[in-house]
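seq as requested:
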Amino acid sequence: MNTQEINQEKAEAFAERMLGVVNEASVALMTSVGHRTGLFDAMAGLAPSTSAQIASAAGRNERYVREWLGAMVTGGIVEYDPENGTYRLPAEHAVWLTRAATPDNLAVTAQWIPLLGSVEDEIVEAFTKGGGVPYSAYPRFHQVMAEESAQTVVAALNGSILPLVDGLVGRLESGIDALDVGSGSGRAVNFVAGVYPNSRYDISEEGVSRARAEAEKQGLTNASFEVRDAAALGESERYDLITTFDVIHDQARPAAVLAGIAAALRPGGVYLMQDIAGSSHVEKNLEHPLGPFTYTISTMHCMTVSLAQGGAGLGAMWGEEKAREMLADAGFGTVEVRQLPHDFINNYYIVRKS
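struct tokens:
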């Protein structure tokens, strides 16, 4: 390429931006470390402290803590007083980075960066050979997803999500049959089962064991979990409510899953589907607040786990247009799309057969 054709100012601005990308990616990785080690939680309860004091409070190795603090200071997350050699996590930052901040803890979301990075070699190979990377390649997936769901789903179920459907809370209080497909670690099901009477089925072998253990711990007798093929539910008009939370776009056979859900709903029943907010057309996602993140998590997880099963590979950014099309093809008649202030990354589809 002839360098005289390059707009030098534009080129330099892009180089500066890419340096910023590398720095911010590093901050994201260290934010995940800070969350998993409990360092943010420890610092939130401390006055300005030395690295040794912070390490002691968190029960961690001082040398590692000191180097991590270097990343946090230069990344603008932690403040440093060179005269006293002390570090401080501002309260304005702690309200977005600690477990006490749930459901606003963004450090939980930062965990996706190292998790996705752990399968980069396999993804690069798939770019050449096709196919996908299976769920088994993501050993921490269920743990991170459970933490994320605890913030976006479980914390908001009673106050925000279930009330989206007119009259649903009252019906749940009276007693209905409900099904959650793809429940992960079962936190949403166990929460609902603790408040309302009926909840059944889960479609994740690893998740089922965790869900059952939690249900047993809580003494719940109205929640049951089964390992089943979500694309072959084989139920007919059995449930009054069916839910999926960030599930459909990962499926190998999403069309079959939706058709099975439609068949399993009783007349007058409702399907509540939470899925990634966005358009099916990339040019309409240019202003999406998490556009790069959602396309990345789709490439590195959602799309590839479906392709690994010989599936459709919908991906996280299948979009509202495609979702509406597939819901209609599955036999649903009415679709209402809502959003909630606490969860700008997802749409909530309120779906009925007629």
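The longest strand covers residues 265-276.
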